[in-house]
Amino acid sequence: MNVLDLARSQFAVTGSLHFLFVVLTLGLAPLVAIMQTRYVLTGKPVFERMTRFWGQIYVINYAVGVFTGLVMEFQFGLSWSGLSHYAGDVFGAPLAIETLVAFFLESTFLGLWIFGWNRLPKKLHLACIWLVTLTAYASAFWIMVANSFLQNPAGTVLKDGRLALTDFGALLSNPSLVAAFPHVIGAGLVTGSLVIIGASAYHLFRRTAEREFFRRSLRTGVVWANIGIVIAVGAGYAQFGAIGDLQPGKFDGAAPGAALGFMIGFANILHLILFVVLLPLLIRDVLARSRWIHPILMIMTPLPFMIAIAGWLAREIGRQPWVVFGRLRVQDAMSPGLTPGMVTLSFAAFAGVLGMLAIVDYLLIARAVRRGPGQVALGAAEDGAPSPAPALAL
């Protein structure tokens, strides 16, 4: 492989690994907030325990995922300085907003939520997790603004060999952004819900003592997975109109076409299973008792991750040979002086670090799931304080 192919492969692999963390974060945050809202409104202990248990899964994924974002930042400076020189004044603006505003606010509110258990008033504590959710979505929004600019450099003009922003509103109303952002939100909801469904099915299949806890968790996952898949599929098809106008022939190549066949095919299969099989069983209130389907639900857990990666690859590969569509080619965006050996070394280092973090994330989440809600440190009562009431079969 030449240096260009190596650099492209490096970005594809590391970007895909990073997105695994992002899509789960976007899915779990609102679901945890909804669980805590139900606890504050009803006062039922089972919803508090659900909030603490699934919130701990969210915190694990967020904490490990933060480091993967740093690797992505390194790549731009190391391998793609041509992009920074040509379009940094435009492309860097939403990334800076995402880092300085959304990311730091999200971290602050998450810290208040983590350490505010048993300290903050219930409603103020609830507000913290909703602010975590909103800032997580704000972070995703600004990332999608930057990505949509690469797909369609709206609101810019060429001055002295560099792109300059002339219309910030055009950047925010980019046709490439309008349907893409809801699509990402829907994909996140499906991913977070399938993790909850798979983990709940694991415990229900094992017939653990926490049957009521995981019955309610399974119900929550199925309901929001159906909502998420409708948003994701609807927004996904809505993007085709804009793509046809902005990038005709985007999916004509073998690689983007295959990624798009995979994404559409498996998304439709998942939609069919959720709507035709799981939702009727849930309405009849027999899903938790239908032990035959629980292994299938466990096997389905990785599916939304694979669909999300396929969708991201289709969106990015189909833009080739452009980094900034119609303005800057990939080979012109690369940093000068790179050699195959240099890129191979950084590729191995970045992929190794992200791969290790992905494995650590999986092992930590799997261990937390196996332990169940009875061994959750998040929100546990301090020594000398009364412990939360156990979940009852309500």
TrEMBL record:
<feature type="transmembrane region" description="Helical">
    <location>
        <begin position="217"/>
        <end position="238"/>
    </location>
</feature>
<keyword id="KW-0408">Iron</keyword>
<dbReference type="GO" id="GO:0020037">
    <property type="term" value="F:heme binding"/>
</dbReference>
<dbReference type="GO" id="GO:0005886">
    <property type="term" value="C:plasma membrane"/>
</dbReference>
<feature type="transmembrane region" description="Helical">
    <location>
        <begin position="91"/>
        <end position="115"/>
    </location>
</feature>
<keyword id="KW-1003">Cell membrane</keyword>
<dbReference type="InterPro" id="IPR002585">
    <property type="entry name" value="Cyt-d_ubiquinol_oxidase_su_1"/>
</dbReference>
<keyword id="KW-0479">Metal-binding</keyword>
<keyword id="KW-0249">Electron transport</keyword>
<feature type="transmembrane region" description="Helical">
    <location>
        <begin position="258"/>
        <end position="283"/>
    </location>
</feature>
<dbReference type="GO" id="GO:0016682">
    <property type="term" value="F:oxidoreductase activity, acting on diphenols and related substances as donors, oxygen as acceptor"/>
</dbReference>
<feature type="transmembrane region" description="Helical">
    <location>
        <begin position="20"/>
        <end position="41"/>
    </location>
</feature>
<feature type="transmembrane region" description="Helical">
    <location>
        <begin position="53"/>
        <end position="71"/>
    </location>
</feature>
<keyword id="KW-0813">Transport</keyword>
<feature type="transmembrane region" description="Helical">
    <location>
        <begin position="342"/>
        <end position="365"/>
    </location>
</feature>
<dbReference type="GO" id="GO:0019646">
    <property type="term" value="P:aerobic electron transport chain"/>
</dbReference>
<feature type="transmembrane region" description="Helical">
    <location>
        <begin position="127"/>
        <end position="150"/>
    </location>
</feature>
<dbReference type="GO" id="GO:0070069">
    <property type="term" value="C:cytochrome complex"/>
</dbReference>
<comment type="similarity">
    <text>Belongs to the cytochrome ubiquinol oxidase subunit 1 family.</text>
</comment>
<dbReference type="GO" id="GO:0009055">
    <property type="term" value="F:electron transfer activity"/>
</dbReference>
<feature type="transmembrane region" description="Helical">
    <location>
        <begin position="180"/>
        <end position="205"/>
    </location>
</feature>
<feature type="transmembrane region" description="Helical">
    <location>
        <begin position="295"/>
        <end position="314"/>
    </location>
</feature>
<keyword id="KW-0812">Transmembrane</keyword>
<keyword id="KW-1133">Transmembrane helix</keyword>
<keyword id="KW-0349">Heme</keyword>
<dbReference type="GO" id="GO:0046872">
    <property type="term" value="F:metal ion binding"/>
</dbReference>
<protein>
    <submittedName>
        <fullName>Cytochrome d ubiquinol oxidase subunit I</fullName>
        <ecNumber>1.10.3.-</ecNumber>
    </submittedName>
</protein>
<dbReference type="Pfam" id="PF01654">
    <property type="entry name" value="Cyt_bd_oxida_I"/>
</dbReference>
<keyword id="KW-0560">Oxidoreductase</keyword>
<keyword id="KW-0472">Membrane</keyword>
